[in-house]
Amino acid sequence: MSAQLDQVLAQAANDPDVIETQEWLDALEAVIETEGPERAHYLMERMVDLARRRGAQIPFSSNTAYVNTIPAHMGEHCPGDLEIEERLRSWMRWNAMAMVVKANRLDGDLGGHLSSFASLANMLGIGFNHFWHAPSENHGGDLLYIQGHSSPGIYARAFLEGRLTEEQLLHFRREVDGNGLSSYPHPKLMPDFWQFPTVSMGLGPLMAIYQARFLKYLHARSIADTANRKVWAFCGDGEMDEPESMGAIGMAGRERLDNLVIVVNCNLQRLDGPVRGNGKIIQELESDFRGAGWNVVKVIWGAGWDDLLARDKEGILQRVMMETVDGEYQNYKAKDGAFVRKHFFGKHPKLLELVSKMSDDDIWHLTRGGHDPHKIYAAFKVAQEHKGQPTVLLVKSIKGYGFGKSGEARNTAHNTKKLDDEAIKAMRDRFQLPISDEQLPSVPFFKPADDTPEMQYLHARRKALGGYLPQRRQKADEVLVVPELSAFKGALEPTAEGREISTTQAYVRILNTLLRDPSLGQRVVPIMVDESRTFGMEGLFRQIGIFSQVGQLYEPVDKDQVMYYREDKAGQILQEGINEAGGMSSWIAAATSYSTNNRVMIPFYTYYSMFGLQRIGDLAWAAGDMRARGFLLGGTAGRTTLNGEGLQHEDGHSHVLASTIPNCVPYDPTFSHEVAVIMHDGLRRMVTNQEDVFYYLTLMNENYSHPGLKEGQEEGIIKGLYLLQEGGKKNKQRVQLMGSGTILREVIEGAALLASDWGVDADVWSAPSFTLLARDGQDVERWNMLHPTDTPRVAHITQCLQGTSGPIIVSTDYMRTFAEQTRAFVPAGRTFKVLGTDGFGRSDTRAKLREFFEVNRYYVAVAALKALADEGKIKASVVADAITKYGINPDKPNPVTQ
């Protein structure tokens, strides 16, 4: 017996007044019997409060005993035919195993995971058979974030349902030639099947929380009836170490998201070994979630333990359960009943006596709660009906359940993807599959006839719940009308003489126009992360309000001002606080609403560009996987624009990151008319055409005048390049200058210097998207390679430049890589020089920063002159003269190294 247990028992034995203690316990028991547990809880809380106010030091604990939250006599039993359900689960386990094993016998590098579904099968089966509704006339449908590594089991179920073919199962993780099944839940690859991607790990719980809040948002604003819908998210206990998994549980509790259920599959293992070998992950998570305001339900022990716990009058079994660490529990399930008897029940003589009439086999078959259908059903029922709080189910299971010595509860279980013949035979026998010994070497799939009782039951259960899951809607049924481009007249016209605005202000004007639009206005979802005032958007507070489920319970300190901080039950703004991951998760929920809710929403998430794609890159990639549609706005963009904030705030690479997401359409506009044309094109593609793309626009906080849209520029803006300003024609030498964002203005000034100081004419090109130019060029290059006998196609940037003359000089507020991606598509033989802001940012004036990074007008002019000199068109001494004239220090350190 351990010293800790000895101490606990000694304290009980040294009770100074056993009779008084029993009287208190009897009184409490009477209250529970006559008035219910709620009354008993209230009285206990009052007593604890009184004791603390009288000076008693009563420590706080958010933990309960290491037993099931729902007492045995209160748990609702599963109403289904459990014999049939068990057979169906066994067949799904077998087919999931066969799918992965077959794939790896063909090619051992394909990988796959068997153990996660093995531990989850009972939970998923109860959910699919009794709880989760598909979209139908009577129900909007539940939303499932399925644990990513359990995908083989989901495919196995869909195979029995007739939704997937044997050929598809044979192509697990082989998608290139068609008919394949993706490794994990990927809507991009299986657009009519998976609802949400849940890997990388941690993203599922985070996105599920904001998805649940978005359902509340839609309901409060009368856009969709979501009152009876639930969001269910399944994740592993090891996955809860990801900061994203736990980072938003406080918001869920604060917002009382009772439409949210997170199921943590506590099989005690992650890839390398135990999750908490020296501790207890269930107790740890219980404390975290309960402290965050969640309803916590623990499902630890199967029904076989109920009798033992009931006969444990002294509470010794409960204390040993609490004392035993997870590393020990894992070891027990990797051994046998005799080992459990000796090392678990052997911790106290009375426990050995408690199980004295049980055989080792009986002890071995004492199940964990995650493998007991009745315990799972009771917990799911509580979660479904609970009001006022989100619910987390902490369900204890065995990783690799059913694999025996080949992987059950072992440190290697996570990566189990290959089973030898002996292990396959053992699994066949354990789950009583009707497969002969002769068939075993081929590991055949098993699917009974459609008229068997099991198959009829399977289909009947899903019919009762509205249809099959998972399923995904690819397009919304509704049609929204996008206004004409002319609706953005204020942004399309030149700024008035003497008036200067930023592209951020132009964007806000466009957003206000959309908010007033009769078709789109109510579908616009402005999303902020505590930077509304930075971007001049605080006027929206009073205009459309900030969404709050409780409204505004206080009088705002600025109530007497025009733009006061107004929270409202039907508010339109989602204000996420200082929380970029939360803002992106809300954006994803809105950007995929066409699929999840059959309602087209138009989210605009505005943030500091440096804190966008860099910080939430994994979520942005997931958004691409989910076929999200909406606008991401990176404000104060560029490495020299947010001049006072310095290194950690200045963005010179978000466009490089954006270029890596294939369905992200990125732009770096300079002028308000470009912003308007790009946003209108985005609305056309995402709302009218329902294309699965999303737009990323960088915006600047620098004020200047804007030239307005000229006829015929729209197509070039959308494609990424157009002639903004044609140079003079009186000089012999000519260059092509190109830029984007705020540095395009330096390029314009550089053209003026070349003409006035050096007699060089310059055409000025605006390049709102180097990334789109590069993608177009790559597409053309590929087409030409694969169609060698056809007339070659010509990339847009090539078409624009091939009729021009002179070197091509590019300057942007981003790393050189941003513009360098177009080099291959510049007309052959042309000099192409790129200036960029490589290196760390720093604080100073905009002018000094542009000088430091060598992207200002003077460097543009010098780069153009040097290119002409290299081509032998002017003397090198002219370049030296320009360097002297503009006060450039030729020996200053390279900014990349500073």
TrEMBL record:
Keyword Magnesium tagged: yes
Pfam families: PDH_E1_M, Transketolase_C_1, Transketolase_N
GO terms, molecular function: metal ion binding; pyruvate dehydrogenase (acetyl-transferring) activity
Enzyme class: oxidoreductase
Keywords: Magnesium, Metal-binding, Oxidoreductase, Pyruvate, Thiamine pyrophosphate
Residues of the PH domain: 1-33
Cofactor: Mg(2+); thiamine diphosphate
Annotated catalysed reactions: N(6)-[(R)-lipoyl]-L-lysyl-[protein] + pyruvate + H(+) = N(6)-[(R)-S(8)-acetyldihydrolipoyl]-L-lysyl-[protein] + CO2
Known EC number: 1.2.4.1
Binding-site positions, Mg(2+): D237, N267, Q269
Function summary: Component of the pyruvate dehydrogenase (PDH) complex, that catalyzes the overall conversion of pyruvate to acetyl-CoA and CO(2).
PANTHER family given in the database record: PYRUVATE DEHYDROGENASE E1 COMPONENT
Protein name in UniProt: Pyruvate dehydrogenase E1 component
Organism of origin: Collimonas pratensis
Gene from which this protein is expressed: aceE
